[in-house]
Amino acid sequence: MKNYDVTVIGGGPGGLAAAISADNAGASTLLIEREARLGGVLKQCIHDGFGVIRFGEKLSGCEYATRLIRELETTGAELMLSTFVSKAEKQRDGYLLTLTSRGGMERVFTKALVLATGCRERTAKQVAIHGTRPAGVFTAGTAQAFLNVRGQMPGKRCVILGSGDIGLIMARRLTLEGARVLGVYEAKPDPSGLMRNISQCLWDFDIPLHLSKTVTTVHGDERVEAVTVAEVDEKMRPIAGTEEYIPCDTLILSVGLIPENELAESLGVPLDKKTKGPFCDQSYMTLVDGVFSCGNTLHVSDLADYVSESGDAAGRRAASYARRERSLLPVNISRDFSYVVPQYLDPEADLSETVFFFRTAAERKKTKLRILLDGVEIKQKQYNGLRPPEMERIPFDLSGAGLTKDSKLELLMEEVRS
Ligand SMILES: Cc1cc2nc3c(=O)[nH]c(=O)nc-3n(C[C@H](O)[C@H](O)[C@H](O)COP(=O)(O)OP(=O)(O)OC[C@H]3O[C@@H](n4cnc5c(N)ncnc54)[C@H](O)[C@@H]3O)c2cc1C
Fold this sequence. Notes:
Elements lengths: L1 E8 L3 H12 L4 E4 L15 E3 L8 E2 H13 L4 E3 L3 E7 L4 E7 L2 E12 L3 E3 L8 E2 L5 E3 H9 L8 E5 L3 H12 L3 E7 L8 H8 L6 E3 L1 E7 L6 E6 L12 E4 L2 E4 L3 E3 L2 H5 L24 E3 L10 H16 L9 E5 L3 E5 L2 E2 L8 E7 L6 E7 L2 E8 L8 E5 L12 E7 L3
Bound molecules: flavin-adenine dinucleotide.
């Protein structure tokens, strides 16, 4: 059985960055990917906008992934493709992984584990749409893979449910390929995607966005023939009498992403209900020693660049992982936050490159973010506005701040009156 210092599961932009940094830090490293090609979801993202932060230029998702793959090829990290990690078990000094591939089953041992398994999409069943199950109902990611990887059109007259970024990007993509996108329907009163995508993917193509409306029924036997949409009240319940019948052949769902954490759960890694990813400290180590998490597995990021940033740090820290007692300090947040990552700080570990990622719970105008240590402000940052779909990043050198396990760290938001 082979032994590694660090094993990274998942070859998307998070896992690639983690494997590169673990190898660069001198660890014997293995990267495992269940698909035949590296790149994760970026393989199907042919539009640009990736890499502005990491590479200083606008790249397509495929180009962004290719850059990381080329970098990985210059390292000594070992790679296993078409290999699925089906089981992870805790041992005294590390983790035993069971791998399944065409060659059969095998086991590897690793001292530290980086989970970079990404997200999966919520499906029609999870948003309780009634009706039959005809062909023509796709998640946005599946429609993206059909169109961009296999060159096949999912349909000609499409309705999109949910205004998440992938749905918005698909509205534009389907239009460019000659389909008619009849509208994007969003149950919430505000769009879920980035303003940049609303403007570039809907407004620029005259695609209507209907807020506070949802799809209640799918019609059709063999193939989708129509959907019924209805207005919803503030509790998202359809309002009787507002139904509208829309003939179409395709329904595309962009109703949220769920971090893939089955392996983490099997190892007893506690998950944050808000992010649906593991709780972690500033080194991206979860609450289970030696298990690290990065990218969309940890929390859903807007930008692949931030995914890779967390991969860099998780890989580097996994490479220097040594077993010891940790006493973790919780990062307290007010109700104005939807969540913060990391949720804990380890005062004994390096705090010089601490990065907080957070989302606001509700849309806000001019806001001051304050970080308090034992009631004293140690950092503040002003924002002209905050929106829940936009993740914020705040890097912070906390090494000289005098944090101990008994300190109290709080993040607060305050309205700025001009
Ligand atoms: C369907 C979909 C479409 C998207 N489209 C866009 C877009 O158009 N534009 C945009 O900016 N962002 C898009 N995103 C967001 C984008 O995915 C992220 O920014 C980024 O790809 C996340 O990187 P990651 O490495 O965390 O995960 P991923 O890119 O998802 O990579 C995770 C990898 O882990 C592998 N894996 C999972 N479990 C196992 C296992 N048990 N064993 C072995 N391998 C495993 C998977 O096969 C996958 O390759 C999309 C996300 C999704 C889910």
